[in-house]
Write a structure and sequence with these properties.
A hairpin with a 4-residue loop joins strand 6 and strand 7. The protein is of the alpha/beta class. The strands form four sheets. It has an eight-stranded mixed beta barrel, surrounded by five helices. Strands 2-1-5-4-3 form a five-stranded antiparallel beta sheet. The radius of gyration is 42 Å and the shape is flat.
């Protein structure tokens, strides 16, 4: 408690006490100018009351607890802070025996004895000094307080003024600080990693026992000594290197050293972390002697690579660092083998290995996985930016031609990268992810780098594994439909939904169709999955009918393989009849490119479906090679404008003109137009003004599960009027 705060509190209570006394005795001549000697009593009393009110306001507003007790130890005044500290309501302490109420049992005898002496002569052992002791709160709990007591002679007897401060928070902070110090001491002093702090000149300021043992010096033997490493230059990233050491038993050792910028005692400094990797280096040498190297290139082979990867993960985990796992494949290497022979191919692989071998640091690993595939582990790569830097270094290594056996030739790589621990922590998973990313780079033309993306990883997995999982998905209920609303722009009414296929793949979460639909089609599973989608859609339409939603239509996509294999017409007719669905409520969407790629079959199939009453739409219009003259001959009710044209319809006048022309031609041929990918009110309003009939997209509603549809329909029904009010605004 500060001296100023204590003095102020004492003066406040003293003033209050004297104020009462002065009123009773009319001591008008000591009020410091507040009243004038000889003034009548009626003039003195208001001044005394005003002075007393000011002093009470100060005491009542004090942060510390303030108490006044009489010669019998009874509390005659307690300010709000004191009542709150001890957990008593306002006024509850007045008249209470302070020692019997507030002192703990073990101190009450001592307090009584002290009170007797205090009442006689106003003296006591602890008067006038700050003491720390426990006090009993109103709820029975103890609270540690700091108490400062002074005597006051008042009304012919001794009173005591006590100022009390709660020490609980301070003690808690002291305990936390002590615990933090102990934790820091344990973390640093007991750490098996050598830790040194260097000042800006490289002089050692601090070492822990592990560093002293690792470097074979006595306690504090390095303090004040130059460490002998460069500490200038670019320190934006931690530098990793290895140094030779003399271990505590006198043998030669190797330590991995990391240097990062820090601050020590308020000044720039360097944190040096030393790890004894002597055993690891010896193990590496032993493994190499066991011929765990690729015989062609001399690089580590697959087994050694995995061993190094495990070690790197352990090391990175201790250090809290990241790793980049790289999987690289040479583009069109098979052509070189087939045209120039396997000997030339082997020579090229050796040339590539030699050039790549100069890139990794000591802490990194480069290996030959097999064939024309290489893998690598790069230490201290934590994020995509670091992965990009690694990838650019690797790609740049292939800019110059290779000269195997005097033959100049160019070759490019496809590179995939996964990150530890950001994307995975298991070595096998990291390699599979990098492999998947590499195949994605190759699929997009090669000579590229790709960081593993779970959303596109399926395309890089083995065909058999994916087909097996898709077969199980169909029979284990992992496939499901999400529904995206379609809204009539003129009325704002929801007229139907589009059913969108999703795969709830175990271990991968919800997977969109872009990642697995091509595999369904190439494997032929799309026919069976398409049948499931048709059945699920008709079941949903039947549920809507039972709920009175007979005006809603439901659109599903039809793969060209479905129309080529089996009898799509018979399947649609049978399913509609079994569920008693009005055929007009089922919308079949055929992709534009697929529709005109099968002109021999499509017109007849479409005509039969239209005669059945099914509504037909052309999906992704404008991305293929169809024409309105061709569409005019087909029984198609509507075309869907691809979202790429919708995206810039507000900001790009040329794009808006193209959409407007499409709408004019479609309407002129008796077709409605549905706009996909509408994400903003401005896009929706612009399409309305251009004359578009229907729209779907995130602005109206995201794809949702069937259980969420009733709530969305209620919400949209209540807000559709708002759409009609704002659609004519200028954007």
């Amino acid at each position: 408690m500060s001296a100023a705060a204590t003095a102020a509190a004492v003066l406040c209570v003293l003033g209050l006490a004297l104020g009462w006394r002065l009123i009773r005795r009319r001591w008008s001549d000591i009020l410091l100018g507040a009243v004038v000697r000889g003034a009548p009593e009626q003039a003195i009393r208001p001044a005394l009351e005003a002075q007393r009110g000011s002093l009470r306001a100060i005491a009542d507003g004090a942060a510390e607890g303030i108490f006044l007790t009489d010669d019998r130890g009874r509390i005659v005044y307690a300010n709000p802070a004191g009542e709150q500290l001890l957990g008593y309501p306002a006024g509850a302490l007045i008249g209470c025996d302070a020692h019997a109420t507030l002192a703990p049992p073990e101190l009450q005898g001592q307090c009584r004895h002290g009170l007797e002496g205090f009442a006689r002569d106003g003296r006591g052992e602890f008067l006038g000094k700050a003491i720390t002791l426990p006090a009993i709160r109103g709820d029975g709990r103890r609270v540690q307080v700091e108490l400062w007591v002074i005597p006051l002679w008042l009304d012919e007897c001794w009173h005591a003024i006590a100022v009390m401060r709660d020490l609980s928070e301070r003690h808690a902070l002291e305990r936390d600080l002590d615990e933090t110090r102990q934790n820091f001491h344990s973390l640093v002093q007991d750490n098996l990693t050598g830790i040194l702090i260097l000042d800006a000149q490289g002089t050692v300021q601090f070492t822990n026992p592990a560093a002293e043992s690792l470097l074979d010096v006595g306690a504090n033997g390095l303090i004040g000594q130059p460490f002998g490493i460069p500490v200038t230059g670019d320190q934006s990233e931690a530098r990793q290197t290895e140094i030779r050491t003399v271990r505590h038993d006198g043998s030669a050792g190797v330590a991995a050293m990391g240097v990062t910028e820090t601050r020590w005692q308020g000044r720039p400094a360097y944190l040096v972390m030393l790890h004894d990797i002597t055993e690891r280096k010896a193990e590496e040498t032993r493994i190499q002697r066991l011929a765990f190297q690729d015989r062609l290139t001399g690089l580590p082979n697959r087994d050694l690579f995995f061993d190094r990867l495990h070690q790197a993960i352990e090391f990175a985990s201790r250090e809290g660092k990241g790793l980049a796992v790289v999987f690289m494949d040479l583009d069109r290497f098979k052509v070189i083998n087939d045209t120039l022979g396997h000997a030339m191919g082997d020579a090229l692989l050796c040339a590539v290995a030699e050039r790549l071998g100069a890139l990794p640091r000591t802490s990194d690993t480069l290996a030959r996985w097999g064939g024309d595939e290489f893998t690598a582990v790069f230490y201290n790569v934590a994020d995509q930016a670091g992965a990009d830097r690694i990838g650019k270094r690797l790609l740049s290594a292939f800019l110059l031609p290779f000269n195997p056996e005097g033959h100049e030739m160019y070759v490019t790589p496809s590179i995939g990268i996964s990150l530890f621990p950001a994307l995975a922590t298991d070595p096998d998973v990291l390699v599979r992810q990098a492999d998947a990313a590499m195949y994605e780079a190759k699929r997009q033309g090669g000579n590229a780098l790709r960081l593993y993306d779970p959303n596109t990883a399926l395309t890089a997995e083995s065909r058999l594994e994916i087909e097996r999982d898709l077969q199980k998905a169909l029979h284990h209920g992992e496939l499901l439909l999400h529904y995206q609303p379609q809204v009539a722009l003129a009325s704002g009414e929801c007229v139907g939904f589009e059913a969108l296929l999703r795969w709830q793949r175990p271990g991968c979460g919800l997977v969109g169709p872009a990642t697995f639909l091509p595999l369904l089609e190439s494997s032929g599973l799309i026919v069976e999955v398409g049948s499931w989608v048709l059945e699920a859609a008709c079941c949903q339409l039947e549920e809507w009918s039972a709920a009175g939603l007979v005006h809603l239509s439901l659109a599903i996509n039809v793969s060209p393989i479905q129309s080529e294999r089996g009898d799509l017409f018979a399947q649609v007719a049978e399913t509609l009849n079994r569920h008693a669905i009005d055929p007009r409520r089922l919308v079949l969407e055929f992709a534009e490119s697929a529709l005109f790629a099968h002109t021999n079959r499509s017109p007849d199939l479409l005509q039969r479906l239209a005669e059945l009453g099914v509504t037909l739409h052309v999906d992704d219009f404008g991305t293929g090679y169809s024409s309105f003259s061709g569409l005019r001959r087909l029984p198609v009710a509507a075309i869907k404008i691809d979202e790429r044209f919708v995206h810039d319809v507000v900001s790009d006048a040329g794009n808006a003109a193209l959409v407007s022309a499409t709408l004019t031609l479609a309407h002129g041929n008796g077709k409605q137009v549905v706009a996909e990918g509408v994400e903003t009110l401005a896009q929706a309003a612009t399409l309305y003004r251009l004359g578009c009939d229907l729209a779907q997209g995130y602005y109206f509603g995201r794809p949702m599960v069937a259980a969420a549809l009733p709530e969305w329909l209620r919400g949209w029904g209540q807000g559709s009027g708002a759409w009609r009010l704002v659609r004519d605004q200028e954007f």
